[in-house]
Amino acid sequence: MNNADWNHIRAFLATAETGSLSAGARRLGLTQPTLSRQVAALEAKLGVLLFERLGRSLVLTEAGHDLCNHGRKMGEAAEALALAATGQAQSIEGTVRITASDVMSAYVLPPVLYQLRQRAPRLTIDVVAADDIRDLMRREADIAIRHVRPEQPELIARLVQEGHAYFYAATSYLERQGRPSSVRDLSRHDFVGFADVGRSIEFVAPLGIHLTADNFQIKSSSGLVSWELVKQGFGVSPMMEDVARVTPGIERILPKLAPITFPIWLTTHRELHTSRRIRIVFDLLAEFFAQK
């Protein structure tokens, strides 16, 4: 799109994200009439209605929601290109806190953190390895990687990947207890529990795997400890394919069993729009997960 078109899209995004023409105008440093004209021009060019007015509020139409998703991607790509073209990434300083589960922090993130070190060497990254959901609004972290979408409307969330998990056990365990050949066989094996055993039992039930508390004779609140117990031959556990692939001594059980799918959400606060250090980390993480 030409320069004018991009200005119109920026006006639309600012209005959609702030919820009003006046707030959108303040964000972009424009007058409200100017912003309103740009949004109207975009609607005229596309031939669709992007907003509906409910009282004093503006609500996105279905077409508006679609354009919002595409517009954000365009904006992020444009900003990333500008950073790369001007070499600004090399000069970005400060600290960015990323929170993710301990397993993801230890097994999945290191390659992308290495890329980040190469791209922004003056940036400090603090990895907060935690399985609880850190409160971004309280600035306990700048970016969160989670399997649930946040409910707070003030946060920005992007679904960056649909991950796959399978059931695994150590070769030593399988040689001792036998390799299950069916889902029914799997129900008779020992499992290593992580956090809430009751939720684990409910989670695998739709797969036809019927477990009780007796299947979980050992558990841990730490994902890393649970996975280490699996490696040491204590039992079976589901695990992300990316993690199991780089773990020696582990075998996938029932290879024909359909994968367990789970979402990976990248979440941050609205400082993303004004902070170059958060923007470059967020974009690189999104690119990393999208390529996996």
UniProtKB/TrEMBL annotation:
It comes from the Bacteria. One of its GO terms (biological process) is DNA-templated transcription. SUPFAM superfamilies: Periplasmic binding protein-like II, Winged helix' DNA-binding domain. Keywords: DNA-binding, Transcription, Transcription regulation. Residues 1-61 form the HTH lysR-type domain. It holds the Pfam family LysR_substrate. PROSITE patterns: HTH_LYSR (PS50931). GO terms for molecular function: DNA-binding transcription factor activity; sequence-specific DNA binding. Gene3D superfamilies: 3.40.190.290, Winged helix-like DNA-binding domain superfamily/Winged helix DNA-binding domain. Belongs to the LysR transcriptional regulatory family. This is Transcriptional regulator, lysR family.
